[in-house]
Amino acid sequence: MKYDGYTTFNAEQNEGVLTVTIDYPPVNVQGIPMLDDLNRLAATLEEDRSVKVVVFQSAHLEIWVAHADTDFLKDMSTEAVPRDKVELSYLQKVLQRISSLPQATIAKIEGFARGGGHEFALACDMRFAARGKAKFMQMEVAMGILPCGGGSSRMARQAGLGRALEIILSARDFDADEAEAYGTINKALDADKIGAYVEELANRISKFPAASIESCKRAVYASIDAPIEEALKEESYWLYQATSKTPAVKRFTQADEGDVQNDMANQRNWNDLVIGVQDIQ
Questions:
Q1: How do the domains of the chain map onto residue ranges?
Q2: What is the gyration radius of the CA atoms in the chain, in angstroms?
Q3: Count of other CB atoms within 10 angstroms of residue 55
Q4: Could you count the other beta carbons within 10 Å of the beta carbon of residue 252?
Q5: How far is the C-alpha of 198 from the C-alpha of 185, rounded, in Å?
Q6: pLDDT tens, 68-113?
């Protein structure tokens, strides 16, 4: 499939990895053009099983994705909307669509990610940030609103209640190491190491079956809010979705016939063994 014609980013596929480079001068502001591009990107990815991992990065030297565009924020209603009349905003819908993609999504953050930009990162499955370059903030409380692109909803799921409220109510910058401590990113890395780390991770994940990647995502996301009994049922459901679409049983059968699991050398070498079994189709 073609990944071209976007106005706010460029996309390049290399085997199972799609790298999306955000490039929307002057500051990568998160406006309607970017949301339209992300929406169209999501529509394509939902139907494309050749892409297994999507990496979001930025061409800007200081900014990953800036805050939401004040041009559309100023048009918000100043009238309180009754609870039964509330509808999701376009920003919420698009970022939820990114979150729900069947592919694994990685935010490689080497600049500012504030407001809606931070919420975009939170909508990705994994986040890695460069020391000395990445800065995060939710500034909405100071403007008189709240994080409304999923930030209020996703923050506590990532960081816990107290940390989420500290981040949201302080409206201050925090760096990559603080973000790692808070739990809002997976890992803080030195600026000269983040590229290789993310590339290696994305390439490794991309070697695995697309249906298995999606099943893992669905089961993990379902476990966040569900009671344990329901989460376990969801886990079983997605297990059978995976085994019906992947060579899993063939791989287990060949391993059993060769008594692979009882070989101590194999037990010491699972990190490489899981890559080797990808040849069994």
A1: 9-206, 210-279
A2: 20
A3: 21
A4: 15
A5: 13
A6: 887 776 676 677 878 887 888 899 999 999 999 999 999 999 999 9
Run of H or E including 13 = strand 9-14
32 in Cβ contact with 39 (< 8 Å) = no
| Alpha-carbon gap, residue 132 to 124, rounded angstroms | 22
Number of H helices, E strands in the chain: 14, 10
Homologous superfamily of domain range 9-206: 2-enoyl-CoA Hydratase; Chain A, domain 1 (3.90.226.10)
Place of tokens 């060579």: 247
Q: How far apart are CA 109 and CA 176, in angstroms?
A: 9
pTM: 0.93
Q: Which residues contact 279 (CB under 8 A, 6 or more apart)?
A: none
What gap in Å lies between CA 12 and CA 202, rounded to an integer?
A: 14
Q: What is the DSSP letter of 84?
A: G
- Judging by DSSP bridges, how do beta strands 187-189 and 126-130 pair with one another? parallel
Find the farthest-apart pair of alpha carbons in the chain and give their distance in angstroms, rounded. Answer: 69
Q: Which two tokens stand for residue 74?
A: 């100023």
Measure the CA–CA gap between 72 and 58, rounded to whole angstroms: 23
Show contacts of 7-16: CB within 8 Å, 24+ apart: 7/33, 7/37, 8/33, 8/34, 8/37, 9/34, 9/37, 10/59, 11/41, 13/50, 13/51, 15/206, 16/50, 16/51, 16/52, 16/53, 16/206, 16/207
139-161 per-position pLDDT tens digit: 999 989 889 888 899 999 999 99
